[in-house]
């Protein structure tokens, strides 16, 4: 339904609209996720709100710059290859509107009620929904359009990380309470007075850690979304990594090496597409092929090699070879310009400055039966920063919101003060309903707009 010629007036307008959508989504992401980083320092009066959000934004930026792009492309590769990179170069407007419209709606809906919700869940649900909608459009089985192995890998990380946050923060608080006897750590904020010097420094340090790790993980998600936008709408300009152009001459050799593996072991239902793409890459001079077609063929071959690497019938040598070829082909299509990283950091930081108050209030006063203390906030953020940073460098997207929220709940249990079951039920319901609702909305939008 929505297919415009690249660089036409409609394509440029679509680019502007989708760019606004991705920026607004990342702005709203700041309401939810980055607010977790500044919640304790603001709630305990360790830093003034403006100072806290500026410092958090700076650390987010550093995290984005140093965090790499493995999470970014691990997330967007939930999409089928034909949606991720349309071979005819048409703009992927239906995909982008379904993605950003769905995720933005659910983020705003939960934020309005002050419920800490996961932006990661929103995006993942929308991406799965698009894959489902694509399967319906092309009358393909879901197993051939949805990379279930990647989805389960991501969902496991999203499910396990809050449990680790709950247990880890609770244990850390328990240890801290028995080793450090300073009363200032265990008293909620009084008026506008900041906590004692070293306690204040500890909270600023943990805020810095969460902000940096948030940038290294969630910042990558926004990088992936921005790259989806500019590649989907202007594939001729952004389909290929300018820094990898000298290696284009080696693509034919990699495709020739991949073909026997695809022919023998790729049994996921997409063998014919992967083999056809490998054949085109093997016999074509890359310098004289449209970038959008080259990108589409590369992703088809990479998707096929991924299936080979996951195929239990393949030998260990074949799986290792498939992984090696894929790793050499990916840099041509997986990249992020410096301005994309900067835009990601700016959107997250500005969103924090505007919308942090509702989530800060929830985390400070509504998770437990008593108000948050400096020791509880520091424990939750220290454990959260470690978990988020580890996930960021292993290529797994996790939810900052759920890790920090679970960590605070763990410290409330560790202190014996108990938790506010009503609020945790709301958070749990948001966690449970986010995926099915975003999958359904995104699938319907993509099916209607792409039909």
UniProtKB/TrEMBL annotation:
UniProt catalytic activity: phosphate(in) + H(+)(in) = phosphate(out) + H(+)(out)
Q: Does the keyword Membrane apply?
A: yes
- Segments crossing the lipid bilayer: 6-31, 52-75, 95-115, 122-142, 154-176, 222-240, 338-356, 427-449
Q: Provide the membrane topology annotation.
A: Multi-pass membrane protein
One family name in Pfam for this protein:
PHO4
Keywords from the named record: Cell membrane, Membrane, Phosphate transport, Symport, Transmembrane, Transmembrane helix, Transport
- Subcellular localization, per the record? Cell membrane; Membrane
Q: Identify the InterPro entries for this entry.
A: Phos_transporter
- Superkingdom of origin organism: Bacteria
Annotated family: Belongs to the inorganic phosphate transporter (PiT) (TC 2.A.20) family. Pit subfamily.
Protein name as annotated: Phosphate transporter
Species name: Nguyenibacter vanlangensis
């Amino acid at each position: 339904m929505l297919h415009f010629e690249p660089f036409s007036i409609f394509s440029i307008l679509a680019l502007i609209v989708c760019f606004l959508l991705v920026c607004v989504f990342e702005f709203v992401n700041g309401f939810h996720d980055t607010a977790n980083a500044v919640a304790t320092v603001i709630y305990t009066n360790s830093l003034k709100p403006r100072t806290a959000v500026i410092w958090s934004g700076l650390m987010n930026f550093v995290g984005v710059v140093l965090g790499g792009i493995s999470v970014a492309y691990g997330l967007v590769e939930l999409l089928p290859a034909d949606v991720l990179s349309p071979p005819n170069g048409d703009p992927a407007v239906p995909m982008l509107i379904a993605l950003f419209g769905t995720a933005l709606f659910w983020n705003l809906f939960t934020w309005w009620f002050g419920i800490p919700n996961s932006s990661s869940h929103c995006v993942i649900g929308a991406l799965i929904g698009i894959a489902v909608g694509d399967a319906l459009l092309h009358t393909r089985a879901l197993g051939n359009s949805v990379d279930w192995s990647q989805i389960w890998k991501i969902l496991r990380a999203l499910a396990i990380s809050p449990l680790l946050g709950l247990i880890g923060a609770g244990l850390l608080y328990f240890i801290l309470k028995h080793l450090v006897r300073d009363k200032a750590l265990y008293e909620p904020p009084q008026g506008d007075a900041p906590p004692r010097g070293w306690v204040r420094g500890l909270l600023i340090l943990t805020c810095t850690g969460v902000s940096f790790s948030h940038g290294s993980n969630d910042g990558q998600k926004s990088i992936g979304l921005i790259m989806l936008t500019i590649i989907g709408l202007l594939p001729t300009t952004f389909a290929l990594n300018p820094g990898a152009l000298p290696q284009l001459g080696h693509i034919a050799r990699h495709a020739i090496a991949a073909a026997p593996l695809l022919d023998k072991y790729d049994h996921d239902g997409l063998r014919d597409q992967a083999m056809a793409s490998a054949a085109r890459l093997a016999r074509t001079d890359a310098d004289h092929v449209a970038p959008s077609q080259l990108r589409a063929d590369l992703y088809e071959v990479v998707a096929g090699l991924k299936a080979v690497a996951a195929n239990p019938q393949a030998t260990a040598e074949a799986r290792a070879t498939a992984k090696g070829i894929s790793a050499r082909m990916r840099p041509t299509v997986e990249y992020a310009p410096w301005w994309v990283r900067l835009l990601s950091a700016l959107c997250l930081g500005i969103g924090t400055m505007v919308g942090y108050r509702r989530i800060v209030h929830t985390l400070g006063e509504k998770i437990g039966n008593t108000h948050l203390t400096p020791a509880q906030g520091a424990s939750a953020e220290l454990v959260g920063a470690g978990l988020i940073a580890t996930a960021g460098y292993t290529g797994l997207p996790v939810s900052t919101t759920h890790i920090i929220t679970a960590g605070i709940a763990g410290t409330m249990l560790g202190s014996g003060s108990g938790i506010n079951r009503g609020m945790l039920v709301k958070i749990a319901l948001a966690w449970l309903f986010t995926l099915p609702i975003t999958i359904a909305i995104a699938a319907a939008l993509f099916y209607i707009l792409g039909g």
